[in-house]
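ARCHIVE CARD
Drawer: 12
Card no.: 0347
Subject: one protein chain, sequence and derived structure
Cross-reference: see card 0346
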Amino acid sequence: MKKILFVGMAQSVHLQRWISQLEGQDWEIHLFPSIDDGLIHTGFRHITVYHSIFTPQPDIDSSVKERGLRIGIPGQRTPKGSPFWFLSRLLNVIRSRLNPNYRQDDLRRIIKRIQPDIVHSVEFQQAGYITLKIKKQLGDQFPTWIATNYGSDIYLFGRLAEHRERIREILELCDYYDCECERDVTIAQEMGLRGEVIRPVFPNSGGFNMEEFDESSRQEPVSSRKQIILKGYQHFAGRALVALQAFARCVDILQDYTIVIYSAHPDVQIAAELLEQDTGLKIKLLPPASHEDILREFGKSRIYIGLSISDAISTSMLEAMTMGAFPIQSNTACADEWVTDGETALIIPPEDVDVLVNAIRTALDDDALVDNAAKINLQTARDRLDNVNIRPQIVDIYRKILG
């Protein structure tokens, strides 16, 4: 039986969605968490996960096999935050102090033991770097290597001295390169990519289960919606504070709207509360929510705003446009490969408040623009995002590589 070993963030919904497309094939699927916190996404099925030290989670499917030092009561799941959970974290800290390279040693030992046909590292800065170390150690004995580039892995980190050379090494040594933007194919080739590019490029989440996207939310025109939704990231890449500045300058046309902010970072939460007090705008900070809850909020929104100085294709933007929300997206996220500026979205610089103010006013003033965009974007999603169509293509990619 063929074996595929994924190296990636075990809690990532994107990785879970991607791997789920391989269910039902005659392959063994293994997962080595690139971040060793003992946690995995609850949606995984029929895989083997290699922790260092872990406490069994109460909501992991019984088909998932967990390997590593188990801390807990035999036969029982252990909730996060319990004494056993804290003990497992403490033991991991102690182990990392005694041997900072313990996960590297674990990965090398697992590869030698299970002898996978493919090692697929998903994301560069964690999974890619640790896989690179083992590739250099094992040389020709290393299995076929697929390296997937996430969000800012190349577009931003490839320009930083701390990361540039390691990224070049990954691109020179991997057998296959996978990404979700044609932009990143060009960058990878300019940085020395020797392996084969996996085509077509797919979103890193694979496809969408289009049945999750509630049709009832699109029964009324998008122009009738009275909500704006903002992705609340403010960090090395996210620029949600720029949107709050723009809202302050659009008070005159926002009085009838509710601004919803999800995944709001602390600085954004503070600024949003102060903005609400100063202007009287209705602002709702969405608490940590399920994927389904966020989709429902997209389905209530006339406009979706996502701003960052670096990204690949924004999964949030794809989900929002599938639910009818009109995207205002920064020009650093490959949005131009999915939407048409001025017709099905507005693509703007991530830090230009003036341009964003004009974009918000345009999207609120022009009902025909947002209504027509919703129809076109939904068809784009059906054509390019439905996992009923994407899954066979992704399975075929692995079949060809395994063959």
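Annotation on reverse: The longest strand covers residues 2-8. The chain has 14 helices and 14 strands.
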